[in-house]
Amino acid sequence: DWHLKENAREHHTSKFSGDELVVRRGQAFTVTFNGTEQPEQNLIFIAETGPKPSKATKTLATFGISSTASTEGWSAVLQSSSSNSVSISISSPHNAVIGRYRLSVQSTASGSPSTARLGTFVLLFNPWSSGDDVFLPSQAECEEYVLEEFGIIFAGNKDHISGFGWNFGQFQGDILDICLSIMDRSLYYRQDPVTDVSHRHDPRYLGRVLSAMVNANDDQGVVLGNWSGTYEGGKNPTSWTGSGEILQSWKKSGFKPVRYGQCWVFAAVLTTVLRCLGIPTRTITNFSSAHDADGNLRVDEFYDAEGNHLERGADSIWNFHVWNESWFTRNDLGPSYSGWQILDATPQEQSGGIYQCGPASRNAVKEGEVDLDYDCPFVFAEVNADCMYWNYDSATGKKTLILSKSTEIGASISTKAVGRDDRVDVTRDYKYEEGSTKERDIFKKARKKLGLEDKFDPTAPTPEEIEQKPDISGKFKVAGSLEVGKDLHLLLVLANLQPYPKTVDVKMTAWSTLYTRRPVREIWKDSISVTLSPKEEKQFPIRIKYNEYQQQLTTDKTIQVTAICHVEDGIQVLVQRNIALDNPAINVQVLGEAKVNKEVDVEVVFTNPIDTEVMDCVLQVEGSDLLTGILELRIPPLKASEKSSTKFKLLPSEAGPKHLLVNFSCDKFTDIKTFKMVNV
């Protein structure tokens, strides 16, 4: 008798749904067995894990019954015994290897030892235990970062932050088994299974290994990335609403990478796996995130004379990028670098020859300690790199600096609040205030540590170029709503900074982009010539009609508008704005009170906001403990302004606050997402 219910309650593992014992390390659990005819002191227990268990690798433990639990190794203490059964409390050390164990008992009573296999159990990290490397003192944070199956991932851009729900589902079905098999399919395990398993006591090691395994690069991992804008042969990354479907597909296909993911998908799947194994983990969104491919803490963007954003060089600035933070101690670096550690499963740059990233100590990133393990320079650049905008002439190959910005990168770094569906800004935990001397000092310190201060960089702008002052300033203002289906209204505001008139030739373009700002299709272009009186400010209205952009828009619903201003006898001025459009709304209502094991109706209402019919309408619904798997409903076409109402039933399986995730798509609108909290 594994005392499944009682042990699970004590070990915070009640949400796992299987019939195998799941417990956390460094904490006692009880087993009762019968068929022992002899005194208990003759019993020896054997706990073993991995392919070739040994005491040297700490994957094999043998222990007899003692009077008190050991704080060092495995131990067994007698709880009670009767004529034919015995109850034993078994404890594992705080730093035990995690994974699936085989437990057997050996008795030596009749002179010749006989061994009986008791079965298997799974041992996980224990954030509730002060001796564990993942110990998290706050109960509320343990609830959120280990036990919570719902999350909010922030997206959009720094001027317009939006969030969507995600079902991590770490306790559903066979997700635990899948997470254990992810570890056994890593390159590290394939090369040397014995050593790999012996390192599984260490969250640092596992975090790094799993950051490699969640992407398909190198190791046939879980998710295949695709940033092309076309997603044939797989699912569009924006269409997923939870990790369960992805992990199940990976297993069902015989462990073939699931198509397709982008950064938030990698981060969400890694959150599921790490929470499942007991490592406190959350998703982090960084707005205006730098991908510094050449490691010079600088990202370069190039534009032609017409204002088109050119794809030159490997650097890029993403509207947003999502990674993970996991909580554990850094015994390798010292106590001041413990706490939140950055892991990133999105395959951007290789580290140690494979696509993995982290753990990088967040404190080390903030203090510019870029020489500390692992991958600190890359993460430091994501939130701190300087930005250079260049005009590139393809005919001559000449590039001219338009402007440089040191405060552009790493804005509104965001995560979900503990216990609430709100956004929390953690930018200050990544860097000192932008524009402060402390922030610039840290940037110089990082450059120095990377050897960038002392070496001549022929690609860098000269101090004179950086110091030049423009004669005019410009910005795009949004006038009206930013919604798919509506015309886009902007104002280009130009101001003459000089006490004498200035003539300006303005070339404007608008392109549909991916969230990585990669230009996909041209939507619109225009040019104007203006003369500005001394110190004058003028506004020029711009209207991009829905029927102009509708065909060109990507499923990321992002548009980059650029104006390059050629100023008479002055330096060029670049004005740009990245626009993230919102989808129209969908409304979700729970009709009645939600109770465990009682059906309750839900109604989803969508009104077609445009003046043409929408077709191929599909509604997808999921939610842990509210329904099993994913419900997919087809909805008939909707004429202009027509309203649709769709009803379906939920059958809640557990009490408490649960989240229902709804995703509506049709030929004109992709992945309109919302979530609804349901109190069961």
TrEMBL record:
Could you name the domain of life of the organism this protein comes from? Answer: Eukaryota
The cofactor note reads: Binds 1 Ca(2+) ion per subunit.
- Which cofactors, if any, are listed as required? Ca(2+)
Residues binding Ca(2+) are N384, D386, E434, E439
| EC number per UniProt | 2.3.2.13
User: What are the protein's UniProt keywords?
Assistant: Acyltransferase, Calcium, Metal-binding, Transferase
**InterPro entries referenced in this protein's UniProt entry, alphabetically:** Ig-like_fold (IPR013783), Ig_E-set (IPR014756), Papain-like_cys_pep_sf (IPR038765), Transglutaminase (IPR050779), Transglutaminase-like (IPR002931), Transglutaminase-like_sf (IPR036985), Transglutaminase_animal (IPR023608), Transglutaminase_AS (IPR013808)
The keyword Transcription appears for this protein = no
**UniProt GO MF annotations:** metal ion binding; protein-glutamine gamma-glutamyltransferase activity
- Please verify whether the record's keywords include Calcium: yes
- What is the reaction catalyzed? L-glutaminyl-[protein] + L-lysyl-[protein] = [protein]-L-lysyl-N(6)-5-L-glutamyl-[protein] + NH4(+)
Q: Which residues form the Transglutaminase-like domain?
A: 255-347
Question: Active site: which residues?
Answer: C263, H321, D344
Provide the family line. Belongs to the transglutaminase superfamily. Transglutaminase family.
- What name has this protein been given in UniProt? protein-glutamine gamma-glutamyltransferase
**Provenance organism:** Manacus vitellinus
